[in-house]
Amino acid sequence: MQAAMLTRPAPAQAQQASRTTTVPAVLQSRPRVSCQVATQEAPSQMSAAPKNVRTAVMGASGYTGEEVVRLLSLHPTFAVSALTADSQAGKAFSDIYPHLVTATQVPTMVKIADVDWSEIDAAFCCLPHATTQEVIKSLPQHVKVVDLSADFRLQNVDTYREWYGGEHKAPELQREAVYGLTEIYREEIKNARLIANPGCYPTSVQLPLYPLLAAGLIQHEDIIVDAKSGVSGAGRSAKVNLLYTEIAEGINSYGVTKHRHMPEIEQGLSDAAKTDVTISFTPHLMPMTRGMQSTIYVKLAGGATVDELRTALKTRYDAEPFVTVLGEGVIPHTRYVRGSNHVHISVFPDRLKGRAIVICVLDNLVKGASGQAIQNLNLISGIPETTGLLQAAMFP
Ligand SMILES: NC(=O)C1=CN([C@@H]2O[C@H](COP(=O)(O)OP(=O)(O)OC[C@H]3O[C@@H](n4cnc5c(N)ncnc54)[C@H](OP(=O)(O)O)[C@@H]3O)[C@@H](O)[C@H]2O)C=CC1
Ligand SMILES: CC(=O)N[C@@H](CCC(=O)OP(=O)(O)O)C(=O)O
């Protein structure tokens, strides 16, 4: 594996010009050629500084892997040092993702077994569900891991068996893993070695509901989630139901009453409410490439008003760079967060007395997957959480 680009010291002049910060935590345990990290505020100087956290992207030929590589092309600290693929191993990354042909420093995709892990500090694991347990178990301890699959998200092994249809193959790692919903579990994430990055639907439901349940402003019963996803949520592999002819000009629900994101969402909401929460959740496949909307119907608790819900969310997320609570009457739209790590939330009074409608939109590939994964690795690494992620949505 080619790692020379990562360990190459920055030209002396550039090192001098770069503003430096403390060494990221992920680097502290290992010897490094350079100890300087450029700050985000100095992009022109930054480009000459070394990217000195060496990352591997496992499953780089898939959509979330691609999105990690795309976002890291603007990241001042994280270098792409290894890319893995399965059926596409041996190919150049730009052969399958020509829009990233300018990312000239990324290595050729190899099989996971061919990665030299002594040259890697951190890994993004963008593999299908149920394939990551043994892979992550086999990695050396010094490698920090953000797993984008669902393999480590459920804390209870019985719940995992029930929803994913098999015994967990690394229960000790399941106990160690920290759930990576950054805005909610930030303190735990900071010290984690293994992050279970949340699912896209669970992110879009938990971010708006967690603070409301924790504050007792909504009832923990009768929560109904009507969720919609772009087709990239299903990954890049060829499937008949994902053909243009099957997707365009129509929508369909799927996983009705049995989608595997239900237990993940309920786990988080139960943590917020400090009691068991059960939801009704129906996802839909939409004829769009990216984007996700969850429209959530809730009952107000203890005489709370819709204005109080909005104020509570605004207060909770006021200092959060990636979560924006919109003003009264403002309708969120997936196109206003497209390609970005931003989440928009809005709260409306329902016509039915005592109820509210909460709408949350995000990009399933960014805050719903790869963006949040980078946000989490930023945190673990002790660099600003927003590093490499501040780009606005792509519009129109
Ligand atoms: N798409 C989304 O919006 C979201 C996805 N996720 C999760 O992220 C993970 C990746 O999703 P996504 O990128 O969409 O999936 P894709 O199907 O697009 O990509 C899967 C990747 O895994 C590789 N792969 C498949 N099987 C194996 C195997 N047995 N061993 C090693 N590598 C393998 C593929 O390689 P190759 O192509 O070479 O065969 C490909 O690189 C999944 O767990 C998914 O649930 C999470 C949140 C949102
Ligand atoms: C449109 C579509 O098929 N979406 C996927 C969810 C996205 C995903 O990959 O699941 P995780 O978030 O759990 O990783 C699904 O419903 O299974």
From TrEMBL:
InterPro entries from the UniProt entry: AGPR, AGPR_AS, AGPR_dimerisation_dom, AGPR_type-1, NAD(P)-bd_dom_sf, Semialdehyde_DH_NAD-bd
Composition skew (Low complexity), residue ranges: 7-22
PROSITE patterns linked to this entry: ARGC (PS01224)
The protein's annotated pathway: Amino-acid biosynthesis; L-arginine biosynthesis; N(2)-acetyl-L-ornithine from L-glutamate: step 3/4
Occurrences of domain Semialdehyde dehydrogenase NAD-binding (ranges): 54-192
A GO molecular-function annotation: NAD binding
Region Disordered, annotated ranges: 1-23
Enzyme class, spelled out: oxidoreductase
Keywords: Amino-acid biosynthesis, Arginine biosynthesis, NADP, Oxidoreductase
One of the GO BP terms on file: L-arginine biosynthetic process
Substrates-to-products reaction catalysed: N-acetyl-L-glutamate 5-semialdehyde + phosphate + NADP(+) = N-acetyl-L-glutamyl 5-phosphate + NADPH + H(+)
EC number from the UniProt entry: 1.2.1.38
Active site (catalytic residues): 200
Pfam families: Semialdhyde_dh, Semialdhyde_dhC_1
HAMAP family on file: ArgC_type1
Annotated family: Belongs to the NAGSA dehydrogenase family. Type 1 subfamily.
Name by which UniProt lists this protein: Probable N-acetyl-gamma-glutamyl-phosphate reductase, chloroplastic
